[in-house]
Amino acid sequence: MRIAIDARFYGEAGPGRYCAQLLSNLEKIDMSNDYSIFLKASNFDLYHPKNPKFKKFRADFHWYSLAEQIIFPFILYKERFDLVHFTQINVPLLYLKPFVVTIHDVILHEFSTERGGILSRILYRLKKIPYHLVFLKDVLLSRTIIVPSQSTRDDLLKYYDVDNNKIVVTYESVDHYPSGGTLSLKSVLDKYGIRSPYILCLGSFYPHKNTRRLVEAFLSLKDQVLFGGQLVLIGKESPFSAMLREFIEGTGIGDIIFPGFLHSKGYLADDEVEAIMSKAFLYVQPALKEGFGIPPVEAMALGIPVAVSDIPCLKEMCLEAAIYFDPESVEDMVTTLSRALTDNSLRSELVRKGYENIKRFSWKRMAAKTLQIYEKAGDREIKRI
Description:
single chain, alpha/beta, Rossmann fold, six-stranded parallel β-sheet
C-alpha cells in the first residue's frame, strides 16, 4: 500500500512532536508499506528516514493557507496514494480520496483566540468559517478519526453526529523522557535566571491555558508567605504572552521567569526543557481545556509532583498521580498548590504514583495502533475498488 503522511508540522511543538514520534516508530515496525512523507522547506532537513520504505518530499505550503487548499491536493492526486494521513485538521477541502485524520482537540470550538480592535475581531471570526468547514469535512469524509484521548473523542461526539466506531483513541507518550540529559543543569538554570525552588508550567499562553489565574495564585502564595521560590513559565512569544507579562509587570512582584524570551522568542530546545523540568519543585497545568496534556506526564516521568486542573482530559491522563484544583477558582488553586508544596508525604505519594501512571503510555503502541488503522482503512478502499 502507498501511504502519504502530511508531516508539515514536524519539529513544531504539540502536533510536531506527534509527527516525529509517529514517523520514528512506524519506521521501526513497518517494512511492507511504502511511505511518502511531506514536509515544509523549514523542516525538510530535520527528518532523516532510516527505513528505505520511507521517502521524504517537499510540500512547502503553510498551514491553513490558500496554497495548502488549492495546490497541495493536486500533488496528492497526481501520486495516486492508497491512503493519506493528515496529522492535523487542515485537510484540503478539494482532496476527496481516502484519508484518515488526527484531530488533537476541539479547543477552538469552545475558546476564542481573538484579540485587538473591532477589525481584528471581524477578521478572526471570518477565518473561523473555513475552520469549521474543514473540520466538518474531516469528520464526515475521513475513513478514520484518530484522537489522543477519550475526552477528545467525547467532545467530537458532542459536536458531531458521527459513528462511534469511526473515532479511535491512540494515546500519545513521553517515552523519550528521561534521556539522562547532555546539558549541565546549572548552566541552563543560570542562563535563564532560574533558581530553586520553582514551580513550572509549560505550554502556550492562549486563554484556554488559564495561565493568568496561575499567576494570580502564585502572587497569593507569595503574599501569604506560603512559597518563597519562583514561577517559571515556558512557552513561545505571542500577543497573549505579551499581555500576561504586562499584567505581571503591573503587579510589581518579581520571581516570575519566562525562559527564552530574550534568546529565542520563547522557544527552548527539548534538552533545555528537560533540564528545567527535572529540578522543578512542582509541575502545574492550570488549563481549562486540553486534548491530551503531555507535559504533566513528562513531569511524572522525571519524578516531579504534579498539580493539574480538574478537567476530563487531565483526569484521564493523570488518574491518581496528580492533585487536582478547580481551574476557575484562584482560591482553590492556592489551597491545592500550598498542599502540594508543603506536604512531603503527599509529594512522595504523587511521585510514586506518577512513575506507575506513565507505564500506560507508549509511542510504539501508538504507532502500532495507527498502522492497524492504515491497514483497515486501506483494505476497505481496495475492496471497494
